Amino acid sequence: MRIYLDVETLPDLDMTYDQKTALFRASVKKNCTKPATIQKKIDEMTEADENPWTKTACKPLRCKVYVISWAIESGPIRSLRCTYDDEIIDSCHEGEDALLAEWADSVLADVELVGVQPSAVRFVAWGGAGFDFQVLRFRLLRIGHPLALRFPDGPIWRTRHIDPMLIATAGSSRSDGYSLEAVGEFLGLGGKAEGMHGSKVYPAWRAGQHDKVQRYCEQDVSLLRAVYLRLVGE
After folding, report:
1. Rounded to an integer, what distance in angstroms lies between the CA atom of residue 97 and that of residue 176?
2. How far apart are CA 152 and CA 160, in angstroms?
3. What's phi and psi for 122, nearest 5 deg?
4. Which of 7, 35, 183, 224 is least buried, going by the fewest C-beta atoms within 10 A?
């Protein structure tokens, strides 16, 4: 049983102002020594949509899971999200744990419902080997969820999960030019929705465009499924 999935993430929202400032300061070139110049560069980074802090959205141990969309085989695409703006959530960490637990419980319930052995489940994610699978694995380990055992460390993941990007690149880890959008468009299967891409997720979240990000994530799952099936000739 194949479960197609995509994860959209945000920067480390739990990072304090002082921690962000230290991160920006560490990113200033070593040959820049004047305090006023250093502060100017920190201010510029703080105002930019893309900076060392926003890039933590691409780091499996630092990001915050925002939206998870998934589909079982040819079934409907479903989504869960945490907007991190609910006052009842004490911390972003708590909200993320609740999101992952709800998603993992839903997956296990679906597997049990159709009578498939957990060992027969294969998760499918574009670039999942380098990001999505690690994001999920570590958070499931953190909350002690049994689904974490479906995301083992090391080369064994290749027998448990499917990364269509590696199929597209004939097994090469080089991904330049092999984005899901690029491969989908080349195969005549379509591209991204509403002009969105990963770097626009945080600005969209900041603007409260949660539905837009969810639609983008769901469209990625739809495209992922179509591309994968074309790649394997199904």
Report:
1. 32
2. 8
3. -125, 120
4. 35
Where are the alpha helices (H) located in the chain, listed in sequence order?
17-27, 35-47, 92-114, 132-143, 157-160, 164-168, 180-186, 201-206, 210-231
Give me the phi and psi of 81, to 5 degrees please: -150, 155
- C-alpha pair distances (Å), 63 with each of 32, 75, 125, 146: 29, 29, 18, 22
Tens of pLDDT, residues 134-179: 999 999 999 999 888 777 665 556 667 899 998 888 876 666 778 8
- Whole-model pTM? 0.86
Percent of the chain with pLDDT over 90: 47
Q: What's phi and psi for 62, nearest 5 deg?
A: -115, -25
Count Cβ atoms below 10 Å from residue 147 Cβ, excluding itself: 22
43-68 residue pLDDT tens: 666 767 778 888 999 999 999 999 99
What superfamily would CATH give domain 2-9+58-231?
Answer: Ribonuclease H-like superfamily/Ribonuclease H (3.30.420.10)
φ, ψ of residue 134 in degrees (nearest 5): -70, -40
